[in-house]
Amino acid sequence: ASADAEMAAFGEAAPYLRKSEKERIEAQNKPFDAKTSVFVVHPKESFVKGTIQSKESGKVTVKTEGGEVFSMNPPKYDKIEDMAMMTHLH
Questions:
Q1: Hey, where are the domains in the chain?
Q2: Does residue 86 come out as left (phi exceeding 0), alpha (psi in the -120 to 50 range) or beta?
Q3: In the beta sheet, which residues pair with residue 59?
Q4: CA angle, 70 then 18 then 35, to 5°
Q5: What does the alpha-carbon distance between residue 64 and residue 43 come to, in Å, rounded to a whole number?
Q6: Each residue of 32-86: pLDDT tens digit?
Q7: 48-55 contacts: CB < 8 A, separation 24 or more?
Q8: How far is CA 86 from CA 19, 37, 71, 75, 83, in A?
Q9: Is the overall model pTM greater than 0.90, yes or no?
Q10: How far apart are CA 8 and CA 51, in angstroms?
Q11: What is the DSSP string of 40-89?
Q12: pLDDT tier at 90, thresholds 50, 70, 90
């Protein structure tokens, strides 16, 4: 049986417990550049995704709201259930 069929047992809660196989594959195949994709500390959202625009003299310009910069995991880890597989943990 497929993973999606197994989740049917959880009824209305299923979409919150595990995304569909199609949605997981789409998320995991988004374009990704490990050198420019980062998380930025955000005062209300904890962390938000950002993209490094430039690095110069120890300063980094990121396209998003400001804050401390952390490396981001590639999309293949999006919605992964076992976080031990992730490259970066914050």
A1: 1-30, 33-89
A2: beta
A3: 56
A4: 25
A5: 13
A6: 888 888 888 877 778 888 888 898 888 888 887 555 666 777 888 787 777 776 6
A7: none
A8: 18, 15, 11, 10, 5
A9: no
A10: 37
A11: EEETTTEEEEEEEEEEETTEEEEESS-S-EEE---GGGTT-S-GGG-S--
A12: low
Distance CA 54, CA 44 (A): 25
Q: Are 87 and 32 in contact (CB under 8 A)?
A: no
Alpha-carbon distance 24 to 12, whole Å? 18
Question: Is residue 19's pLDDT more than 60?
Answer: yes
Alpha-carbon distance of 30 to 87, in angstroms, equals: 17
**Sign, CA torsion 60/66/71/73:** negative
pLDDT at 89: 64
